């Protein structure tokens, strides 16, 4: 039944005591399910001398169950039965792929019972929180083979949304098709990626269309694939005229994620669906909530691909405080993939951090960090100017000062045309190292 009001489920505002009791009960159940049904976990846990009877508390779970990574998964999938490897309950009904951003795609073997559960308990809440409602028309450019694209289409169907799926897939070659469909259908809701919105805006300008005219009728943008900073949110709202921009994040391998709420204090990951941990990127030691590190995900829904302490590749901060929206679940700030981070002044920094400083001085900007490991203790930046009369090009000293105040390191700035920034497959490289290649736009 579709609810009325702010929350999709009463569980969104449960007390932490109730949520912790749910997590412990589900953790014990998922450990037993994984041991009984997944060759992957059974082999690893037997080698470590662990059985489900050894896990009676969350602390024991964190201390005793070993983590695994995408590389572990790829090795096992290369020589095993994908259908049963991770404990998917038969019959397997469909397969989905991850994006393959860090190398070879991994495969998710799925069944419809599991998909019904994950869509209802995770994705319906996510989209309801991000203002999607029955009867709306929603436009989405996510690839249908990707887990997020698959679940998004299922949400549209379940919620009674009129889905608009344009011809093509989410690469630049199909931007023109997306623009044609957006103009023809005039949806109220848009699901995609920040870089795709930018590409569509640029295609519209090429055709003589103002961005607000292009996105006329769209009330909300729901964007995944990269973190949306406050400055980027403001810029997108100003440029397109939408009412709000929601940022979705998570991972298909770890099967966790959601979007932020209207307070935009972080992605609300559901504590009855996932147990999230954070560890030090260097040592793997556990960190407290509120500290920045790598995430570990455990999925608490059985029957599909079982995820028990999967160590992800992103830097995050996980808070466990009641949001001003009233929800009590995790609030997750995603920064970027670990491979896009760099150390300066004893801190792990990401393009998200750089964006915040630039926005403080001159608003949202396109930029690239150059060779951070060999930059001599300063952050070297290429920043795209906005036309030849851009006043910010005279503010390099102010940018340097802002970096020194926030991070204790300076910044060397070179202003360039946007086409001079390094791109790979027409997507901006935010941290460029000489070994990466790439091409100008």
Q: What proportion of the residues is helical, as a percent range?
A: 25-40%
Number of E-type strands: 22
What's the level 1 CATH class of the largest domain? Alpha Beta
Number of helices: 13
CATH arch. level architecture of the largest domain: 3-Layer(aba) Sandwich
Any idea what the shape is?
globular
Query: Biggest β-sheet: count, sense, barrel?
Result: 6 strands, mixed
- CATH topology assignment of the largest domain: Rossmann fold
Strand content: 15-25%
Unreliable stretches: none
N- and C-termini, Cα separation:
48 Å
Count of spatially separate domains: 2
Mean pLDDT: 92
| Name of the CATH superfamily of the largest domain | ANL, N-terminal domain
| Content-based structural category | alpha/beta
Strand order of the largest sheet: 4-3-5-6-7-8
- Output the radius of gyration: 22 Å
Structural overview:
The protein is an alpha/beta fold and 441 residues long. It folds into two domains: 1-340, ANL, N-terminal domain (Rossmann fold, 3-Layer(aba) Sandwich); 342-440, GMP Synthetase, Chain A, domain 3 (2-Layer Sandwich). Helices cover 33% and strands 23% of the residues. The chain has helices spanning 16-37, 39-47, 58-64, 70-79, 82-85, 112-129, 147-159, 175-185, 194-206, 211-214, 230-240, 351-362, 396-407; strands spanning 94-97, 107-110, 137-140, 162-164, 189-192, 220-223, 244-251, 256-259, 267-269, 274-279, 292-299, 310-319, 330-337, 342-344, 347-349, 367-370, 379-384, 411-416, 422-424, 427-428, 431-432, 439-440. The strands form six sheets. A six-stranded mixed sheet has the order 4-3-5-6-7-8, sandwiched between helices. Helix 11 links the parallel strand 6 and strand 7. The termini are far apart.
């Amino acid at each position: 039944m579709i609810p009325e009001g702010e929350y999709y489920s009463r569980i969104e505002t449960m007390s932490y005591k109730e949520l912790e009791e749910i997590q412990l009960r589900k953790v014990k159940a998922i450990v037993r399910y994984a041991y009984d049904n997944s060759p992957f976990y059974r082999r690893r846990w037997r080698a470590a001398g662990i059985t489900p009877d050894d896990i009676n508390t969350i602390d024991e779970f964190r201390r005793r169950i070993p983590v695994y990574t995408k590389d572990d998964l790829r090795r096992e999938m290369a020589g095993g039965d994908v259908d049963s490897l991770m404990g998917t309950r038969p019959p397997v009904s469909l397969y989905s792929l991850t994006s393959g951003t860090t190398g070879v795609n991994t495969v998710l073997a799925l069944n419809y019972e599991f998909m019904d559960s994950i869509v209802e308990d995770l994705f319906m809440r996510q989209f309801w929180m991000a203002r999607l409602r029955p009867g709306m028309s929603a436009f989405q450019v996510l690839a249908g083979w990707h887990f997020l694209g698959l679940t998004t289409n299922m949400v549209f169907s379940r919620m009674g949304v009129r889905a608009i799926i344009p011809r093509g897939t989410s690469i630049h070659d199909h931007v023109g098709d997306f623009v044609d469909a957006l103009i023809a259908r005039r949806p109220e809701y848009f699901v995609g990626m920040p870089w795709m919105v930018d590409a569509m805006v640029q295609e519209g300008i090429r055709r003589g269309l103002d961005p607000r005219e292009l996105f006329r009728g769209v009330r909300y943008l729901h964007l995944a694939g990269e973190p949306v900073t406050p400055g980027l949110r403001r810029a997108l709202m100003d440029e397109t005229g939408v009412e709000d921009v929601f940022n979705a994040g998570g991972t298909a391998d770890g099967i966790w994620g959601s979007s932020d709420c209207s307070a935009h204090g972080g992605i609300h990951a559901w504590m009855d669906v996932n147990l999230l941990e954070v560890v030090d990127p260097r040592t793997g030691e556990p960190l407290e909530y509120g500290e920045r590190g790598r995430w570990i995900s455990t999925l608490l829904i059985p029957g599909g691909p079982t995820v028990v302490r999967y160590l992800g590749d992103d830097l995050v901060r996980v808070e466990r405080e009641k949001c001003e929206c009233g929800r009590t679940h995790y609030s997750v700030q995603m920064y970027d993939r670990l491979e896009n981070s760099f150390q300066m002044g004893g801190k792990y920094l990401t393009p998200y951090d750089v964006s915040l400083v630039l926005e403080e001085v001159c608003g949202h900007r396109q930029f690239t960090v150059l060779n951070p490991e060999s930059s001599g203790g300063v952050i070297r930046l290429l920043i795209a100017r906005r036309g030849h009369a851009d006043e910010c090009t005279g503010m390099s000293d102010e940018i340097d000062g802002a970096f020194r105040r926030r991070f204790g390191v300076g910044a060397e700035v070179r202003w360039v045309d946007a086409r001079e920034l390094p791109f790979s497959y027409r997507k901006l490289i935010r941290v460029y190292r000489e070994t990466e290649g790439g091409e100008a736009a």
